[in-house]
Amino acid sequence: MTFLSYLIQGISLGSIYAIIALGYTMVYGIAKMLNFAHGDVIMVGGYMCFFATSGLRDRFADGSVAQAVIPNLAGLLLAMFVCTLLGITIERLAYKPLRQAPSLAVLITAIGVSYFLQNGAQVLWSSNPKICSSIIGKGVLSLGQLSISHVILLTVVVCVVIMLALTWFTGNTRMGKAMRACSEDKAAAQLMGINVNATISMTFAIGSALAAIAGVLFTSAYPTLQPTTGALPGIKAFTAAVFGGIGSIPGAMLGGILLGVIETFAKGYISTQVSDAIVFAVLIVILLVKPAGLLGKQVAEKV
Amino acid sequence: MLLKVEDINVYYGAIHAIKGVSFEVEEGEIVTLIGANGAGKSTTLKTISGLLRSKTGSITFEDKDISAVQPHKLVAHGLAHVPEGRRVFLQMTVEENLEMGAYVKSAGVEEGLAKVYELFPRLRERRRQIAGTLSGGEQQMLAMGRALMSSPKLMMLDEPSMGLAPILVDQIFEIIQSLHKAGTTILLVEQNAQMALSVADRGYVLETGKVVKSADAQALLNDAAVKAAYLGG
């Protein structure tokens, strides 16, 4: 039973990593840059949800259905709205002027934006931790001896729905196909009439909305929220994206979930203190064997 | 006049790649730019489609100055550019590539596909295949078909014969001629000057970023200097 409950917990944590990793991988696929501020957008999403839910909860009668639903829904929507705007703004102000710059300059800028968001959060909301409530309450589903919290169920379901939706979007819609075309060859995409700048903005918007969802789910499962909350999950999700094959949507999903499971097993069976070191050791070994990641694409060009 | 290029100067950093090039293309013509590797042929096409910018002069298409128009807006004006090296989307299917060619069109995609498949039956057979799995010749057909999807008034072809077996080169040039017969004006850039001049109405010879000669294609084919430099004696 312990094994099974670790596994379920790992899949749930991994689902959050996967949702974050999808944002990393989409932005990388199209803008060919690592947006290290992506993790901190999660934190902003967490704060938005916290403020909306804690501000609205007292306005409804205790225990009413409205009290259970409206503040949480408002929290999620506010988080998605603010993060989407934030993502587009970051791209516009920090990354767009560097479109022709060397990738190292963009990378350093991204790290700068990350610290800017963390410090900004500290100034605005102080570094005292806030304790978030779960978006879906504290309910538990019992299956014999096994008990699964509603947060875990919600997280896994949301992750699967997002991945299916993104796969459908990139495979079947005009905008989604244009995104794939831009990720392959920006100049050729322009010659088709695709507005590359608008497509990049769109990608940041989608990635940041996903980060908001991840932020809400993350603070539901791990309620302590502070300005640095997004940093470590951000780094881990980035690793998950590389692990699965950066640029690949199913890769991000697979990488995220495996990472979460490995981490939870390492915590449960070996040691909580060194679990992160174990996770990264496993990743290094796998990347030595498969440098492009598990589902990384290596298309041979024919002449 | 369909396309008029006047005194363009293009730089790659400090390198002066195009030095005051002017030429024009009339509606219904096939015009070719020939010249050695590095003469500035591709750079000229990229400047027309807005991927590079000229410091001087003007580029007018159907009497509109397009020299400051963003590249993604030119397709809607009726200008299609088949870039050097084909640049098809290798990870997308053949049909998705063609759909991207019609990105700016709100209607008529089905008719466009039917037309392209009629011209290139090979592409119909392979329409569900990933473009990266096509042969070089098929990729060239796909790149041309993709450009056709926007029903262009002017199609600019950059080195369509590059890297292809001789039999495929013949086939590609037959297709160019049939596109032309169907009413598309063509600006053709080629290192294979013999082939290019044999299908073109007029030609311009580029040398190190300058137009050094322009004449009817037939005259250029018979020109002693052109023969010596570009037609293998």
How many H/I helical runs of chain B? 10
Query: What's the SSE pattern of chain A?
Result: HHHHEEEHHHHEHHH
Indicate the CATH architecture of chain B: 3-Layer(aba) Sandwich
Distance between the termini of chain A: 56 Å
Oligomer: heterodimer
* Overall shape of chain A: globular
Radius of gyration of chain B: 17 Å
Please name the two chains that share the biggest interface, counting residues whose Cβ lies under 8 Å from a Cβ on the partner chain. Answer: A-B, 23 and 34 residues
**How many strand segments of chain A?**
4
Which blocks of ≥5 consecutive residues of chain A have pLDDT under 50? 299-303
Tell me the name of the CATH class of chain A.
Mainly Alpha
Q: How large a portion of the residues of chain B is in β-strands, by DSSP E?
A: 25-35%
- Helix share, percent of chain A: over 70%
Number of helices of chain A: 11
Task: Describe what this molecule looks like in 3D.
The complex is a heterodimer of chains A (303) and B (233). Chain A has 303 residues and is mostly helical. Helices cover 73% and strands 4% of the residues of chain A. Chain A has a two-stranded antiparallel ribbon. In chain A, α1 (2-31) packs across α6 (174-184) and α10 crosses α11 (275-289). Mean pLDDT of chain A is 91; it is low at 299-303. With 233 residues, chain B is α/β, with parallel strands linked by helices. Chain B has one domain: Rossmann fold. Chain B is built from 10 helices and 10 strands. In chain B, the strands form 2 sheets. In chain B, strands 6-7-8-3-9-10 form a 6-stranded mixed β-sheet, sandwiched between helices. A 4-stranded antiparallel β-sheet of chain B has the order 2-1-4-5, covered by helices on one side. In chain B, α3 runs parallel beside α6 (136-148). The mean pLDDT of chain B is 94.
